[in-house]
Amino acid sequence: MDKPWSGRFKGETDALVEAFTESVSFDKRLWHEDIEGSIAHAMMLASCGIISEEEAGIIINGLREIAFDIEDGKFTFDPKLEDVHMNIETELVKRVGEAGKKLHTARSRNDQIALDLRLHVRKSLKEIRTVLTDYMSAIIEKASQLTDTIIPGMTHLQFAQPISFGHHLLAYFEMAARDVARIDDSLKHMNVSPLGAAALAGTPHPIDRFQTAAKLGFDWPARNSMDAVSDRDFALDAAYVCSLIMMHLSRLAEEIIIWNSQTYGLVELPDSYTTGSSIMPQKKNPDVAELVRGKTGRTYGNLISLLTLMKGLPLAYNKDMQEDKPPVFDSIDTTMSSIVLMTGLIKGVEVKKEVAEAALEKGFITATDIADYLASKGMPFRDAHNITGRIISWLIGTGRTIAEMGMEDYRSFSDMFGNDVLEYVKPSSSVDRRKSFGGTARKNVRDSIKKAKRLLEKMKN
Ligand code: ARG
């Protein structure tokens, strides 16, 4: 089949070169955007008097029929025709003849691909945003079930202070809320249309770029034709947004893996979200969480690929930029599926409350509270810290826990201890005293859940 650019050439393209330079194997994914852009372009050409209304009608009908066939799986993309653009245009000409040959007036594949990819990234980010808000709903739901469940909060992966499990989960709500805001910012920046920049310099035909921009839902046409065809910031924004989402998911994944390990055993994962071992019959592995953690690396790699791809590229279009698509698509797919799977995992995870309670007995989790108690009675915090340190050292030496300490034990360290200390050092009192803004007191957590619900409703609208 003759290539649309074959006029200048006498010889055939080497088969190896054809295979090396084609992009249709991956950019066929953009067929819908390609047709959408072409329809907007054809309408504009007609309304500006560059082609007739009749010709535009023929082109648009032809494109719609091609779209139906692609949807029905009846269209074969041919790698000899390089990319999605030339595949669709060649088919159009084959089907509708002369009128089809006029579609490419005042356009180039350079503005065409810049447009198609931008439309695709815009749509995909909106889809990611939707599944992200579903994930946030699942977090809120789990957090309200677990507000009263107290677990050891950690620093350095060591038991630090007791916290409400709901409070812990709401930290992931905050990360996702920032991710949604980041998506919205990126969508704002990317919403300019490159269409009509043509190859790089604009076009002598009397086109109306504002019309195609409005038709395709963009705020403006890009101001500079050279920037329009060579800008891939929007793809980088998407890759960065995906990397951050994955980084956040990977932290939750890691926590689930730790909670699920035999050494901790705090949670039970649903059978439907775990897998077995082919050799060790007792195993129930947290594969979904592990893969989310692992796949995060791919999105970082994709971001670095794109940054490196664009570095030092002279204006305007360079074929290097064809390599932008696989990493962008991979980041989108990886992030989409990871969010959906983490949502299922969060919904299905069960917390073993007796394990949480037993864990609170270990690790002198309310040691800070003993020091806070003395400080609240007027002792300078540094002295209080020192006395508490001596208490802990004594407990370690005698193999006892804070809960096992009686009043005489306390009084032997300081006569500032009153009977109320016994209540003060209980994990539940420790949690509920932390009423400072953003702290873990269960009353705070209940308020935060209400606020999170309101914020999420706003984000969904
Ligand atoms: N397949 C190309 C890409 O993905 C489309 C643009 C080609 N333009 C060109 N002048 N060869 O970047």
CA gyration radius, whole angstroms: 31 Å
Q: What small-molecule ligands were found?
A: arginine
Which class best fits the helix and strand makeup?
Answer: mainly alpha
Number of H/I helices: 20
Order of strands in the sheet with the most strands? 1-2
Name the shape in a single word. elongated
**Biggest sheet layout:** 2 strands, antiparallel
Helix fraction, binned, reads 55-70%
Strand content: under 5%
Mean pLDDT: 96
End-to-end CA span = 49 Å
Would you report the number of β strands? 6
Q: Report low-confidence residues grouped into runs of 5 or more.
A: none
Order of H and E elements? HHHHHHHEEHEHEHHEHHEHHHHHHH
Describe the structure.
With 461 residues, this protein is mainly alpha-helical. It starts with 14 loop residues before the first helix and ends with a helix. The model has no long low-confidence stretch (mean pLDDT 96). The protein has a two-stranded antiparallel ribbon with strand order 1-2. It has a two-stranded parallel sheet with strand order 3-4. Strands 5-6 form a two-stranded antiparallel sheet. The radius of gyration is 31 Å and the shape is elongated. The protein is built from 20 helices and 6 strands.
Provide the descriptors you would attach to this structure in a database record.
single chain, 461 residues, mainly alpha, two-stranded antiparallel ribbon, two-stranded parallel ribbon, 20 helices, 6 strands, 5% strand, elongated, binds arginine
